[in-house]
Structures are given as C-alpha cells and as structure tokens.
Design a protein that fits this description.
The complex is a heterodimer of chains A (about 425) and B (about 230). By secondary structure, chain A is α+β, with helices and mostly antiparallel strands. Chain A is built from 12 helices and 13 strands. In chain A, strand 7 and strand 8 form a beta hairpin. In chain A, helix 1 crosses helix 10, helix 2 packs across helix 10 and helix 8 packs parallel to helix 11. The longest helix of chain A has about 45 residues. Chain B is built from 7 helices and 10 strands. Classes of the chains: A alpha+beta (about 425), B alpha/beta (about 230). The structure holds adenosine-5'-triphosphate and magnesium ion.
C-alpha cells in the first residue's frame, strides 16, 4: 500500500515536472554537469595515479637506485684546455656496497651506453646495458627465449648479449635471433636470449620534485641489449666526449647505476641513509643520487590524496551551485503554484503531503540529473582515453558517490522550498492569483 | 434530522495594525442534515470568511463550531486537514482544478490524500465524472474544457469523499447563464439526494433554489428567510 502510494506520488511528480519540461531540463543541467565532472575527473585522476603506481612498482618497491649525476661545474673551464672530468659511480662503489653492508640482498652495477646495433644490413639505435647475471633479481625481466647472462659469460668476458623484443623486431624481423651476431661498434655479440619489453615506463605522470627520468629509457634507443658488465668494461670506453661552446670536454664515468635490493620494505629507508653515508665518505663531489621507488610510491599516494581533495572541493562547489540552482527554481515553482497548494490543502492535503510532493519533485530532478550525469560522466573518460591517450579508470565507488551526492543535494536544497510550500496559509493561497 | 453544523458565538477578528476588523461578529447558526442554504450579503459582509470557517480552512477567533457533532474549533492543522479531506466538499468560483492533472486525476485528489489506492479511486472518479455528464472527457486536461465543464469536474471532486457538507462560493459567478443553470441543476439534484449544501451567492435567482437564505451584514446575521418549497 505504501509502495503504491510512492508510485503514485512519483507519477504525479513526473506530471508536474513534465508540465514545465524546459524548465525542469534546464534545472537538471546543473546537477548533470556537476555529477558528470565529478565522475570524469575522478576517472582521470584514478587512471593517472594507477599508471604512476604501476610504473613505480615496476622499479621494485624493495629496490634503491643509485644513479650517477653530473656534479655542478667546479669552475668555468679555462680556455681550450682539455680536461677529463672524472665522476660518478665506480666499480669500487659497487664492491664496497656489496661487501660492507650486510643487509644488502643484491647490488647490481649497471653500465649504460647508447650505441648503434647492426645485423646484416639493418641497424638501429640501441641501449647497451652492461650488467651482471643477477640483474634479473632487481628487474622483472621476462625471459622469452634462450637464457639470460650467466656467470661464465661474466668470468670469461664473453661477447654475448640478451636482446629485448623491440630489437628483435627492428633487426631480425622474421629471422631467428638466437645464435646470430649483433654488431656494435665493430664487435660481434652472439645473441643468447630474448626478453620481453619492460612495459612503457616513460610515464606522463610527474611525481612532484623527483622526476623519474632515470626510469625512462631516454634517447632514441629502440630497445635494450644486455651484455656482461666485464665485456662492457673492455669493449667500451668510459670516456665520453661532449662539445659545448666550441670546446671539447671529456667525461669519464664508470657506472651509470647501481641498484640495491633489500629483503623487505621496512629496510628501504634505513638503507638509503646507510648508502648515503657510505657513498658520501667515498665521493667528495655530489655526483650521485639515490632514488627510492618506495618513496615515489608514497609520494604518488600523497599526490593522489591531494588530488582527491582538490577534486572533491571542485565537485562540492559545482554541486553546490547546481543545488542552489535547483532550490531557486523550486522556490519559484512553489510561489507560482501557490494556488495549487491552496487547492490541495482544501482537498485534505496535510502539510506533510505538500512537503512530500515538492521534495519528490526536487529528488526526481536531482536523480534524473544524477543518472544523466553518470551516463555522460562515464562517456567522457572513454573519449579522454581515446583522443587524449590518457588512461582513465571509472570506479564503482565514484558512481555510487555521485549518485548519493545528487540525492543529498536534492534533499538539502529541496527541503526549504517544500517547507515554504507546506507552511503557506490555505486561505491566502486560494486567494492567490 | 441531525444537526450537521452547529455554530455558537462565532467570531473572526482580523487585526489590521491597531484596528480590529470583525469579519464575523458573534454568529449563531445551526444547519440540519440535507438542508440547502444560501448565504447572501454585500461585499465585505463576511460571507467568504464564514464559508472558510465552515470548511475548516480557518479557525475562529472565538466561539464554537461543531461539525457533525464534533467540536472542530480548536483542532490543529493536521486534524483540520483530515476533516476537510473526509467531511467537506469545496466548490470555488474559479473552479480551481489542477492544470497538470486530467479530469479523473482531479476528481481523485481527495481520495488520494485519504490514502485510497489508485484502483479504488479511479473507479469511483469515473463514476462521478459520468454522473456530472463528463464520462467521455475523463482524460482531458482542465484547459481543454469549458468553464461549465470545469465546474462540473469541481463538483464531482467535491463529492469524491462523500462529504457531510458541500460548500460553494459563488459557483456560477464565472459562468454564462446556461452553464450556470446546468450547475444549479446538478446542485438541486444533490440536494434531492439528501446532501447538505451551503452556497454563497449574490444572485437572487440562485438563492431562490435554496430552502433558507441567510443574509449577512457587517459580520452579523441580518436576517434568515425560509423559501417556500
Ligand atoms: N486576511 C484578512 N485580513 C484582514 N482582513 C480580512 C481578511 N480576510 C477578510 N478580511 C476582512 O473581513 C471582511 C469580510 O471579508 P469577506 O471576504 O468574508 O467578505 P465577502 O462577504 O466574502 O465579500 P465579497 O462578496 O466581496 O467576496 C472584509 O472587511 C475584509 O476586509
Ligand atoms: Mg467572498
């Protein structure tokens, strides 16, 4: 019986709103756009943050990455004198980290060289990564064929390499790469394994002050060629020439990175301090930095919180504006329908009935707006992903949230007009023109 | 016959600034079940005020009003609403139908507020619409009806909850003479069925239909005239 009455109240509400279709539609738009923007913004925010988190997680949350950075110029180079600047991480650093810090699970020294790789008449820019067999412990490389670098390769400085799928595609296309030789700088390296590409980590996301450029394989390299670190040491010069302002500069860097892995997440931050203390003692210049993916993760989480608060405020304001619009229209509607209210009261409507009537109308408007907003708001992220190439994630939570909010807005801004209507004097209302 | 309306020392005083206006001044009135009453009097004499009090739309400043044996002069807003919905039928000069509702829905309104199901009320409303000669217009909106037809819908609506009294404030005031005559015929018919009718009018011809004419002047009953049957 109550349900029938509800159904009827809704039906009558729809009739009243239908009377003023245009007005109802316009009134609803405020809520539509409010809800739509909430959902779309949350979806974009969620997408960005998930992407960032995945990117960071790929770096390994128990890893610490020590990177070589070019120290600030000590003094302007005097004239054309050619000086060799010697800086960065060294093999000795890697040794001392491994030998003096007990809680280091693995320490992986990494040498990176941008080169050109050739196979038969094909060539492509590659990034040569000189590293050790236990590189696989700090990076989730996925072996597709063959094997990864071995300690025998290391020991005998073998001219072997492991290439990733991108290189396979560029250099070998349809040929079987295993057993073939890739030529880099006049030397031949036999392919012993193929690994998958490590996701695209050149992230659009910006993690505050810490840029993650070290994550991204910058430059023009199409893919990675892993060779034993010992081989890299003998085959490739550690000297690197740069030209600036007509003068030639030479730089000597032994290692570009040392990645350290600890047993558990709890040890990460302590390890950062230990590493910093150790390296600070050995290095007189600040020519390294320690990147902690875990911290990036936490930073991303913090950013996400701030993002949510900002979005929430914008959403709240836009819904507030929508709500005020609805209240405004409902007040106008109440005063326009004064006579109708008087008639209903004369026919036996209690104050409560009038409140229910107007509240129902407001709620119908806001819920209709909410549903339309949800539909539009779910479409927008698809468009953003399709045209803007940005990842978006619509969570069920955001749908429920925005629907709930539109209901709350309806009640909040519908109650006052409804009370105004209910408290009108029946006789006055009947006399109203 | 039972007394439907029993009014004693009823006053309604409006306070306009420092001036008190006695719209009704110490009125006594008793109306029996099935009576057909006309209320007449010059403009401002208190006819509408009296009708509003009779219809429980308003509360008297002082005095007693028993409707169907129940004292209704001190009820609260909800209780008055209930009395209006169950025991009073209103007919207004300007019809006062609700524009967005069709004929049936307008007639159903009093039943809707008394909690009848749509099933019950729509059947009853159809019957009433047929009774006032609008059986073929039930889906029409008020805008699509003539004044006389609208007033007939209003009469059907006033009958919806089988009220104790039917109150009409100048029911033919907005109508031409032929539609006015139709309305008066329907009212006569209701009287013959034993309904209690109280009609406010300026028109002697209408008053002639009633059994008793009450003349108001300055908020007082000037005279009561019984028409010959
Ligand atoms: N809400 C009010 N506030 C102040 N005075 C009022 C109010 N309603 C009615 N009055 C006064 O009460 C008196 C009676 O008014 P009422 O409307 O009952 O007259 P009436 O007999 O119906 O007149 P008419 O024939 O013009 O409809 C008038 O003097 C009027 O000014
Ligand atoms: Mg009047």
């Amino acid at each position: 019986m109550l349900l029938f009455r509800l159904k009827r109240t809704l039906k009558l509400g729809v009739k009243s709103l239908w009377m003023h279709r245009l007005r109802s539609t316009l009134t609803t738009l405020g809520i539509v756009f409010g809800v739509c923007s909430v959902i779309a913004m949350l979806a974009i925010g969620e997408g960005a943050s998930q992407e960032a988190q995945e990117a960071i997680a790929k770096l390994g949350s128990t890893n610490l990455i020590i990177e070589t950075i070019r120290p600030p110029d000590e003094q302007a180079d005097s004239g054309n004198v050619e000086t060799v600047r010697n800086y960065g991480l060294t093999y000795a650093d890697a040794e001392s980290i491994r030998n003096t810090i007990a809680s280091v699970e693995v320490a992986v020294p990494i040498r990176e060289i941008e080169q050109e790789g050739r196979y038969r008449n094909r060539k492509t820019a590659v990034k040569v990564i000189g590293t050790v067999p236990w590189y696989t412990e700090i990076s989730p490389v996925q072996l597709l064929r063959g094997r990864f670098l071995s300690s025998t390769d290391m020991h005998y400085q073998q001219d072997v390499c492991v290439i990733d799928e991108n290189i396979v595609r560029e250099l070998f296309t349809f040929d079987e790469p295993i057993g073939e030789d890739v030529r880099i700088q006049g030397n031949y390296y036999k392919v012993v394994g193929v690994v998958g590409v490590l996701g695209k980590i050149e992230s659009n996301a910006n993690f505050g002050n810490n840029d993650v450029s070290m994550v991204a394989s910058k430059g023009s390299a199409t893919g990675n060629v892993y060779i034993p670190l010992t081989t890299a040491k003998t085959r490739f010069s550690e000297l690197n020439y740069t030209f600036s302002g007509g003068s030639r500069r030479a730089e000597k860097v032994e290692l570009q990175k040392i990645t350290v892995k600890v047993a558990s997440i709890e040890q990460v931050l302590a390890m950062r301090d230990i590493l910093d203390a150790l390296l600070d003692r050995i290095h007189d210049k600040k020519d390294y930095r320690i990147v902690v993916p875990l911290e990036l993760l936490r930073q991303a989480a913090k950013m996400r919180r701030i993002f949510s608060i900002v979005l929430g405020s914008i959403a709240a304001i836009s819904l507030l504006v929508g709500g005020i619009g609805i209240m405004n229209i409902m007040l106008a509607s109440v005063s326009e329908r004064t006579r109708e209210i008087g008639i209903r009261r004369a026919l036996g409507a209690k104050r409560r009935d009038i409140i229910i009537q107007f509240l129902t109308e407001t709620l119908l408007l806001t819920f209709a707006g909410g549903i339309l907003g949800i539909i539009l708001g779910s479409l927008v992220p698809f468009l953003v992903t399709y045209f803007g190439k940005m990842p978006t994630v619509i969570t069920a939570g955001s749908l429920i949230l925005s629907f709930g909010i539109s209901g709350i807005v309806g009640v909040t801004f519908g109650l006052y007009p409804a009370y105004r209507a209910a408290n009108m004097d029946p006789i006055e209302s009947l006399r109203h023109e | 016959m039972a007394t439907v309306v029993d009014i004693k020392n009823l006053s309604k005083i409006y306070q306009l600034g420092s001036v008190e206006v006695a719209a009704l001044d110490d009125i006594d009135l008793a109306i029996e079940e099935g009576e057909y009453i006309a209320i007449m009097g010059p403009s401002g004499s208190g006819k509408s005020t009296l009708l509003n009090l009779l219809g429980c739309l308003d509360r008297p400043t002082s005095g007693e009003y028993c409707l169907g044996g129940k004292d209704v002069s001190k009820l609260d807003d909800d209780e008055l609403s209930l009395i209006r919905g169950m025991h009073i039928g209103f007919i207004f000069q300007s019809y006062n139908l609700i524009g967005q509702l069709n004929v049936i829905e307008n007639i159903e309104l009093p039943m809707y507020y008394q909690g009848f199901s749509e099933h019950e009320s729509s059947a009853a409303a159809k019957k009433l619409a047929t009774m006032v000669g609008l059986g073929d217009r039930i889906k029409h909106r008020p805008m699509e009806l003539s004044g006389g037809q609208q007033q007939r819908v209003a009469i059907a609506r006033a009958l919806a909850n089988d009220p104790v009294v039917i109150l009409a404030d100048e029911p033919t005031g907005n109508l031409d003479s032929s539609s006015g005559a139709d309305i008066l015929n329907i009212l006569d018919g209701l009287h013959q069925k034993g309904k209690t009718l109280i009609v406010v009018t300026h028109d002697d011809n209408i008053a002639a239909h009633a059994q008793r004419v009450i003349h108001l002047l300055d908020g007082k009953i000037e005279k009561e005239i019984y028409n010959k049957a």
